[in-house]
Amino acid sequence: MVDAASSSAPAPSGSPRRGAAGPDASPAAARPFVASDRELGPMGRTLLVTLWARAAEDARPDALRHDPDAAALLARIEHDFDRYRRCPGGGWKTQVGVAVRGRRIDEAVEAFCRAHPEGLVVELGAGLDGRSRRLGGPGHEWLLVDLPEVIAVRRRLLPPVAGEHLLAASLTDPAWIDAARRLGARPRLVVAEGVLMFVERASVATTLGSVAERLPGTLVVADAIGGLMVRFPRLHDTLRASGGARFAWGLRGLDEPASWHPGIHVRAVHPLIRDGGRRWRWMRVLRAVPAMRRQFVLLELECGPRGAAARARGPAPVVTDHRGGGATARPPRPTTSPARPPVDDPGRAIR
After folding, report:
1. CB–CB of 109/317 below 8 Å?
2. Which residues pair with 343 in a beta bridge?
3. Strand, helix or coil at 329?
4. What would the pLDDT profile of 188-245 be if each residue is shown by its tens digit?
5. What's the rounded Cα separation, in Å, for the pair 176 and 168?
6. What is the DSSP string of 85-137?
7. Residue 8 confidence (pLDDT)
8. 172 and 248 in contact (C-beta within 8 Å)?
9. Which of 50, 169, 238, 311 is the most exposed place for a label (fewest CB within 10 A)?
10. Domain at 27-329: CATH code
11. Closest to 77 (Cα-Cα) out of 4, 150, 161
12. Binning pLDDT at 50, 70 and 90, where does residue 64 land?
């Protein structure tokens, strides 16, 4: 959702305490926000699809991820959310995809916050996600970056609390890197959820290269899609209903980000279709097809000198295996780059 060039300085921390999550209940904020084409452009409107998917998932008894604030936010936005239910299959693929992606990212953020009680989390394309309020501790700082019109909506519906800094900027705008540097030398995690595939490949490569050079030791967690999704966007059930957004690029290979800059290292790749159990319905058969497994993945990247990134990473994070196993700690990574990025797919490499 981040694709504008305008920016502003990070907002000062708000007075409400962190943990007082949920939409603002003040009379001014109680007025519904009209999500018109004038208020939100094509990229900004993608946040509405994600919000709908989060609220729909939270209402299920077998929810893969709970987000109790999503329904409250949904009720305060004047928009035809039923349009997503009218998509092919009722939009179930988007709902499951947002849930499994969000849960994996939550786990990565939780592991980082446990390892670094005073760390900085940067969310690119933050939208109306409340992860900073659900997972952040009193010592954490959060830099929430998105399009100017999206940040304006967030200020109205989710005013910043202590430790949150809002920044209206593009992910291609170095202003957010400047802001992260101004927040001090501390361990950093950058989260890019549902955003990189909408920005041109060259711009993504340049931005991550700048992170490696100017924020050495930073960890990046981001989802990515494969080329098939770009060539055949109709495979995505709600993309057209979002109102003009389009996919700009797809991974050419799982280790492609490492080719963009010598300081970018692929730490792990998680095929997200392997999460979610039976909720993927007939798409479960695609788990056996390597080319299909890489159409929707979560990347873990280290930016900067390998030693600096390892120090920022801290203890091996605990990641729950949603395919039936329990919580397991990742083994230490080798000091030399492997021929292929490690894949969360025991016994089977993705090619």
Report:
1. no
2. 269
3. strand
4. 999 999 999 999 999 999 999 999 999 999 999 999 999 888 887 676 767 666 666 7
5. 9
6. HTSGGGGHHHHHHHHHHHHHHHHHHHHHHHH-TT-EEEEET-TT--HHHHH--
7. 42
8. no
9. 311
10. 3.40.50.150
11. 150
12. very high
* Contact assessment for residue 147 and residue 3, using Cβ atoms and an 8 Å cutoff: yes
> What DSSP designation does 281 have?
G
In this structure, the number of other CB atoms found within 10 A of the CB of residue 94 comes to: 23
Residues 229, 238: Cα–Cα separation, whole Å:
13
If you average pLDDT over residues 91-97, what whole number do you get?
A: 89
pLDDT band at 37; cut points 50, 70, 90? low
Measured CA to CA, the distance from residue 129 to residue 150 in angstroms comes to 11
Q: Report the alpha-carbon distance of residue 21 to residue 134 in Å, rounded.
A: 7
**pLDDT digits over 11-33, tens only?**
433 434 455 555 654 434 455 77
Q: How far is CA 203 from CA 171, 175, 199, 210, 318, in A?
A: 9, 15, 7, 11, 32
Tokens of 243: 């109102």
pLDDT (average), residues 106-127: 96
Please list the residues that pair with 220 across neighbouring strands.
190, 301
Q: What is the pLDDT, as a whole number, of residue 241?
A: 65
Instruction: Output the six-digit token pair for 222.
Output: 């981001």
Query: Could you please report the per-residue DSSP string of 194-248?
Result: S-GGGS-HHHHHHHHHHHHHHSTTEEEEEEEEBHHHHH-GGGSSSTGGGSS----
Compute the radius of gyration of the chain from its Cα atoms.
Answer: 19
Could you tell me the two tokens for 237? 């059930």
User: Whole-prediction pTM value?
Assistant: 0.81
Q: Looking at 3-17, 32-46, 203-217, 265-279, which range is the least confident one?
A: 3-17
Tokens coding 154: 């967030």
Contacts of 233 (CB under 8 A, 6+ apart): 239, 240, 246, 247
Of 10-14, 22-26, 248-252, 296-300, the range with the lowest mean pLDDT is: 10-14
